Amino acid sequence: MLRTFISPAIIRPLSANKSIAKRAFSTSFIQKSQAATGSTEEKRYEFILTETRGQVGLITLNRPKALNALCSDLFTEINDALRSYDKNDGIGAVVLTGSKKAFAAGADIKEMKDNTFVKTYKDNFLGHWAEMTEIKKPIIAAVNGYALGGGCELAMMCDIIYAGEKAIFGQPEIKLGIIPGAGGTQRLVKAVGKSKAMEMILTGNVNLNATEALNLGLVSKIVPADELVDEAVKTASVIASMSQPSVQMAKEAINKSFEVSLSAGLRWERVFFQSLFGTADQKEGMNAFVEKRPASFTHQ
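Request: output the structure for the sequence above.
Response:
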């Protein structure tokens, strides 16, 4: 979470490259969702743009004047689009991105500044942010520019993070008299280690540039800003071409490793592995390997 304005003290990375790229936005305002029946309907959103690229769903945050600050309605729209893609048999993976200047500069502080404890507790404030972690299909965050506060937490809720050259990650909520509320204290430590997570969260002014994020394991690849979304879509397309039962079970097994003991995680993995021998894709994949031909998966 973070307020909608950015101060120099907040955005300074450890070894800052302070030049900022120009904004870039998708021009598609139409999102085609496919229900379980396979029927499609057009849907128009206020705060996000959506489009389909082959077997990949693309979601672009679209609050440019607020540097893509994460208001409640924006997250509701993200969840709705993700659920539609999750039900769509023609989609195998999703890419989530923002603009070149800001992936998301934090939560919308104007929206939350007058909240009270009782209200936030009774309404489970920010609880709906976590709904995206229930999506079965892999989500790749393509992060250009600022990913601060809630923006950093949003990226970490995705399964893979690609960073543009000017990406900046940080958790400066402590400067607002609060702490991260959407996973920052839990996911960041698993990505960068306890000491660095403590330093970032407790000081609020230690941010990571793209190279630092890569070296610490927060992101898996750095890509030139102009190529970032295309590179993320390329990887998502590779994932989408694989057997979807296998992809989704692999995602679930990896995520389980953060929540259960090693012995329990190994048991989950083994059961998933064994269960895939009941799928048509396992037969196709292994037969294709033996016959030295590309596999043609049916996701069954």
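Residues 1-42 have pLDDT under 50 and may be disordered.
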